[in-house]
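2024-03-11 09:14:02 INFO receiving multi-entity request
2024-03-11 09:14:02 INFO entity count = two
2024-03-11 09:14:03 INFO echoing inputs for audit
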Amino acid sequence: MAEPVLEARGLTKVYTMGEVEVRALAGVDFFLYPAELVVLLGASGSGKSTLLNVLGGLDTPTTGRVTYRDHVLSEADEGELTRYRREHVGFVFQFYNLVPSLTARENVQLVTDIAEDPMRAEDALALVGLGDRVDHFPAQLSGGEQQRVAIARAIAKRPDVLLCDEPTGALDCATGQLVLSVLAKVNEELGTTTAVITHNVPIAAMADRVVVLSNGLVKSDTRNEARRRPEDISW
Amino acid sequence: MVISALTRKLFRDIVQMRGQFLTIALVVACGVGAYISTVGTFRAIDRAKDRFYEEHRFADVWAPLERAPRSIRGRIEAVDGVHTVETRIVTHATLPMPGLPEPASATVVSVPASGEPALGTLFVREGRLPDPTRPREVVVSEPFAKAHGLRAGRSRIKAVIEGELLELDVVGLALSPEHVFTLSAAIMMPDDRRYGVLWMSEPALAAASRMEGAFNDVALRLQPGASPEAVVHELDRMLVPWGGRGAYARKDQPSHRAVEGELAQLQGFSTAIPVIFLGVAAFLLNVVLSRVVELQRRTIAVLRALGYRGAEVALHFLELVVIVVLVGAAIGVPIGWWVGDQWTRMYQPYFRFPAFAFELDARTIGTAVAASLAASLVGALRVVRAVSRLAPAEAMSPPAPPVFGSTLAERVGVLRLMSASARMVARETLRRPARLLLSSFGIALAMAVVIVGSFQFDAIDGLMDMQFGMMMREDLSITLRRPVTANELSAMRTLPGVRRAEGSRTVGVRFRAGSHTRTGALTGQMPDADLRRVVEWPGRFVPLDREGIAVSRKLAEVLELSVGDTVDVEALEGAHPRKPLRIVRLVDDLGGLAAYAPLETVAAFMDETPVVSSIYLSVDPKDELALDARLRAMRNVAGVGKRADLIDAFRTQTAESMALFTRIITAFAAVIAIGIVYNNARVALSTRAHELASLRVLGFTRGEVSAILLGELALQVALAIPVGFPLGKFFAVAMMSTVDPEQYRFPLVVSTATYAFSASVVVVAAVVSALIVRRRVDHLDLIGVLKTRE
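2024-03-11 09:21:47 INFO inference complete, emitting structure
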């Protein structure tokens, strides 16, 4: 097997809220290999978002070690983490998080402006099937379209890792399918290592590998025999 | 050039917040405008003054006297520290002018036969200097000439000098550095129609005033580093035999003193007013920016997650501040230019410089913009630092609901007595007491600015009442060349139309106590005086006592004396008697450094029989004109003043100059008030739209919802008003402190009307702002707001 792109060992994350200590991660080992699509399953509070935040360089673990290729993220300072996000990671959020005052094209340009070898914003949008909606503002787009803009924004920099936090969480089933098929297409065509968080069990069928989290621990890590096309999945 | 997506976001944000953006930019514009106009006006006067003084050799010391032979000139030149000496003849003239019911008065100054005087040379605007071989030639001060349409080489005027009527050819129009501020002694106001300066060739004026071979005025320039005080002292000593009337240095030269006083006031303005505006702008930027950041928390988090550096995001918000300031400056510079130009024009009738125009240079603009930027960045700094430190993961989660319930009012339980909506207002404001207090303070500042712009009217009213209602009650006042006895005064009463005549004796004196010396006047009053009496603020007649003198409280202060002490008084005329006089009372008079005593006391001090140097008449209106003409024809009459003219001149001059100032200041203050109230309202609306829409969904009416939002604003204004009053008074005191108290002591009165006006300006500004925001509350998108909570 190839070397993992992202590697996490013994991760813990403890939030202190007043007098209460919340243990979001209780010792997680996790690996992401090149070009694979992994689905992270888990109920609310299982620690999956925290894990994704740590892997994406948005947050640092309380203890444990995270490495991206030969970079040790768990010891990186804020500047290094920013550079890591800027150069290697693409994010897709549950609530799209588009900048409302920018058009679809301009939202993608936010990334292409600062990336080293980005694709054209129009091409990224075409890739997610929005080639004809480039000049629309978020308010003029449906939820699914907004999420596809968010995906275009995430992949425009040709990231090594694409991290998606409940990308279909705010969408109905049909729209969700469309968004997932875009993610699968990006993974297949660009070879982008992709991790998708969801609490939606059927979605696991589209993955190469499924990791289940519970109470801040990895409960299982299984490989699918075959990936199913998102169009064939319903929930 | 490719515009980055972030820059586009910046411009769209600005367009979306245009109302807030514009109001802040306007506050900045007022600050920039106030700075540019005051500094530019200051520089205009200062440079014009320096240039004029330098090019036309303004003297350092002057000494008026009765009459001295020209032969003593060498002795004056020998005084230690003296560099250049210019002796001349200065006298008075009355000028019967067509178009004026009573003659104008003028000061007549000699010009040496050789041509240019060594000091105080004339700036000849039109024509030429008088030809010494033609005794009937005269140069007229330009403002007076303009007021009467006189032209060099074409006009002829009549002048009565020493009782003799002369017909003079106007050969030139000129300005002099000694008469930049041409105050008529009688009215203490510039009055170009009734007062002017004439220059005649020395032989001609000597003949007309019987001063051949003599002079009665000397101007000196000192050697570098010489002490003017020492020279003044020496001159006083030396000139006693020739009727020296008290030498004075440049700082006491009336025209120069007026110019300097105005400059000091402008300098005060040019600091204080911009500081207020920039402080408010910084505060507004802080409030608005922190709300913008709050609203854009998610966007900031996304940018950070996408890989933007903290500094890049911070810079993005700083750019917003910079653009606000630049737009403010772009509006403020032309406003400042216009106001400064108007202001300078307002000064033009007061200050007569050859060239005197508002100047705006790049440095002034640069300073204004840099100061605005600095103030605004200070206001934004805390917010922007917080932005750059916002951890991206933390920002992805919605902000935690604010903690309520720990305030004192809550614990005491006062809030339980209120309605639910009143409770919302109360909790929201109590939770952010600093913001409430700062907002209220800002509104109070706006009120204070209005008071500063208007209170001078109140002082003027009080001044007029006292000056013309109690102190000067005559119809005509006559200044005599030489004092007359009581008998001669009685003769005045027999003139047709005279109802009452009384007189007073005024002597120029020097007061000394310890190391302090001041020049002022000692006035002797007749015991039964009714037309002219000593009056003190706020309108009390001062009884005089034969045992001593009553002195201006300010004089006692500077001499460090009090009632019961004696002061060393030296007369600056006659035989210059010098005697100790006892202070029996302090007088709260409004200007100058003066001493008052009964006529006999002054006569005893001067070693003379009681005489009067000024006469005051109450006359029958129908005889007034004839009487005026008759008086002016008298040889011993130096000038006749008319009370009605004084009142008119006073009213028009002050009204004209102050109305513009007041209007501008009031507009500026309204901008502050609107800036604060509108921005607070918009910010409150934007952060609470969800909450307010929820209330609407629950069945609250638009009015009820607006009340919750606007209640906070009403509270801010209500708290501001009681603070604004004393703050305004404080500013007024600070402004008056730039006026030389030895010259003027304007009573500091702020009338109820002014207070009410200042309060109404902010209330109107608040209501207008509230109405605009209210319209937005009415149009809250209920479903939209509830659906998209990001």
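2024-03-11 09:21:48 INFO post-check: The mean pLDDT of chain A is 90.
2024-03-11 09:21:48 INFO post-check: Chain A has six helices and ten strands.
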